[in-house]
Amino acid sequence: MRRLATIVAICAWGAAAAAAAPVASGAVREYWVAAVPTTWNMIPNGRDAITGTTYDTAQSVFPTVVYRRYTRGWKHPLFNNPTQGGNQDLIPGPLLQARTGDRYVIHFKNRDSAFRRPHSMHFHGVHYKPSSDGAYVPGFSGGDADVKYGKTWTYRLTAGRDSRGVWPYHDHSPSMDDSIAGGMYGMLSILGRHEAAPDREFVVVFAEMGAFQTIDGRAFVGNTPVFTSKVGQLVQWDVMAMGSEHHTFHVHGHRWIAPDGTPRDTQTVGPAESFRIRWREEDPGTWLYHCHVEQHMMQGMIGTYHVTRA
Amino acid sequence: MRRLATIVAICAWGAAAAAAAPVASGAVREYWVAAVPTTWNMIPNGRDAITGTTYDTAQSVFPTVVYRRYTRGWKHPLFNNPTQGGNQDLIPGPLLQARTGDRYVIHFKNRDSAFRRPHSMHFHGVHYKPSSDGAYVPGFSGGDADVKYGKTWTYRLTAGRDSRGVWPYHDHSPSMDDSIAGGMYGMLSILGRHEAAPDREFVVVFAEMGAFQTIDGRAFVGNTPVFTSKVGQLVQWDVMAMGSEHHTFHVHGHRWIAPDGTPRDTQTVGPAESFRIRWREEDPGTWLYHCHVEQHMMQGMIGTYHVTRA
Amino acid sequence: MRRLATIVAICAWGAAAAAAAPVASGAVREYWVAAVPTTWNMIPNGRDAITGTTYDTAQSVFPTVVYRRYTRGWKHPLFNNPTQGGNQDLIPGPLLQARTGDRYVIHFKNRDSAFRRPHSMHFHGVHYKPSSDGAYVPGFSGGDADVKYGKTWTYRLTAGRDSRGVWPYHDHSPSMDDSIAGGMYGMLSILGRHEAAPDREFVVVFAEMGAFQTIDGRAFVGNTPVFTSKVGQLVQWDVMAMGSEHHTFHVHGHRWIAPDGTPRDTQTVGPAESFRIRWREEDPGTWLYHCHVEQHMMQGMIGTYHVTRA
């Protein structure tokens, strides 16, 4: 996996563009994704930098299944989010980028050789037929919702005008509970047809994971993603939550104008809710971003954001 | 009660219109409601269709008190929401429909012969004097807030311009805790003066009930309301929560534009919060709607929505 | 402390104005604040007026540290919010009032002789350099985030155009957990440059405190703030939450138009979220305001609002 890191450090936006086959109303965004077993460490450096508490691997490491991006035909594994600041690893799954008017073709393969559970992908925010819903309901759902080990499914989605924004995707198969608890989730990021792409795009997924509260599968400053930007850059935060708890997203030293026109610096996000925030960066420094639910902060839901002068 | 079902299958909208006495600025919406004992079954078919888990009646049935709609003078019981898709039964209470500019006259009678507790009705979103508040505060509140067994109270409310939308009502008497836990809640639905009425209106109340998480008092697909519509219809979802927990409302395969202009498909709703969502239906299929708090889904807060071709 | 109460009953707005040194783009709002030990009683009258339950001081009194406003140079203690209806005492800290374009200079001194913990002030919604962030991160933060007993720090903040509204401040030092649990929080209230000041401004902080759910550090009707206004007055509610729980703010007999144009009377507020609500009062009576999370109401998060005729 480490060797691959250097090979596949291609731009996520570039990769999406390369995969696009132009059509009348937009591009086709084709992705190859598999459910793959991995051994995940929530706290790679073994400590909470703020309190000094240490954790051993018996507390922080567990076997799980995650979404992983691949090249065409699932030939070669890719890092999920190679160019983004922060965690370039396997949780969350690949950031699925498009513009309104585009279509997504998502090829999914169940390679869960560890647990041999069924898996699926269920997408928020986009248009699709029931056969691309990916949600298990006996008597109604089909192969999209219950992809067995070794099998594949292709999900066909359309980014409508009302799909602009950021959205969750996640397992909604019979193994949903265990799979989401283990990190099987990711985001779609859909820009308007002619909207400026951000210079920096940060994916923040709040989710409980065992005894910890994680951001992108990691707990505590020094383990959670370190996001970076330069003064003058257009930065975008893609925020969502998964699991069973409500959170409040906060960034120090910054504010944004909510869609209703109100200045904010803290925003509730419940399970499967999602929002994006943008600003033109002008505040150099090392800033905290975190869930402001105090118990969640203390259980690891906090990270740092570094802004340097241009 | 079963015999009455066939007799009273009148249109809720029609009933409200029939009761209206025109006044200068709007109609008078008169309702007759009683608190009545019943035996409630949260899981009538005894099973969770998704996991296959079965539940016996010792787990799902309990004696309780609910709001029930009546004809004038509490002469004959009516089904609470006869024409709506889904649960036409006793939880939630009757959907109290009006337009801005209308006045409500709600005649309430405590027929709680089972527990002989005091009861009341407290309404959100509307204008009223303290004597129609229905909330118990010793030293301040009056007969509106503490209607004893066998007694009555008439609540007088006005739907102002700032009452447009959907709102909760619920018991706020000294028995509030037990009564809300037992299902004593319902909704007001107030259209703008000249606003189009929806073709289909679905009432979704999220509330914990014992060990289960319920929608309109029912748990698990097959027990919760089955909402239905046809392509081309204007559908409206009236969503609220009661109790002590925050939820996130999600419908599969659909999105809506929030009042702030943002596309959404998942929305937090906390206790006594409420919102309505509308769309012109265009996606045939069987779709899930549910609370996206995972533990709540697993405890029953999930149902199906069937859209057929016109 | 009681003797001081009569001496310092000056207008909070007047005090802020008196302290202002005019500058090109706005005023300088200078405040002197200290962390001071106190003995706090969450339920001074020893009872829940609604249920009649009584509580003894062993359950409701505890030693803690709070923010207290002082005159220049920390010479004389002031009441935190002398002219506001309700709790004029030490929780929350002083309401830090300004207008967009103003600068704040907040002089903070750690006088925590009881616990000798480090303390700090971290402010939401305003612009500042990392040296005024007040949030402890080993290896990054400085003296602003870890003010030792007997030491001082001056925080320099700017109220930008995007700072309009109400915002939390709180301890973010290494003692953050204990300090917030003990009441070390308060609010900033920032009006637009030419915006009308309200006639009445009510500060509502929802926070768990031991076994109770408090408003401004107090539990149950008769202990929580009693807010008052007259018909015709412009009233403003400044609402925030601290701690680890989500709440829903509700006022009886009133509604407001949310910034997205939607009428509301109940609004979710999670930890460190904040919003302000305004209306021109027109409904005389004694009304309840409370968190609508039922368990929180039952644990004390409820108070009364008295409106008299002009």
The backbone outline of chain A, from C-alpha atoms, is: globular
Write down how many β-strands of chain A occur, each being a DSSP E stretch of 2 or more residues: 19
Rg of chain A, Cα atoms, Å: 19 Å
**For the residues shown, what is the average pLDDT of chain A?**
91
Q: Please give the oligomerization state of what you see.
A: homotrimer
Greatest contact between two chains: A-C, 36 and 41 residues
- Kindly report the name of the CATH homologous superfamily of chain A: Cupredoxins -  blue copper proteins
List unreliable stretches of 5+ residues of chain A.
1-24
Any overview of this molecule?
The structure is a homotrimer of 310-residue chains. Chain A is mainly beta. Chain A has one domain (5-308): Immunoglobulin-like (Sandwich). Helix content of chain A is 9%, strand content 39%. The first copy, chain A, has 5 helices and 19 strands. The two termini of chain A are 33 Å apart. Residues 1-24 of chain A have low confidence and may be disordered. Chains in contact: A-B, A-C, B-C. At the B-C interface, strand 7 and helix 4 of B face strand 13, strand 14, strand 16, strand 18 and helix 5 of C.
In short:
Three copies of one chain form a homotrimer. Chain A contains five helices and 19 strands. Chain A is mainly β and 310 residues long.
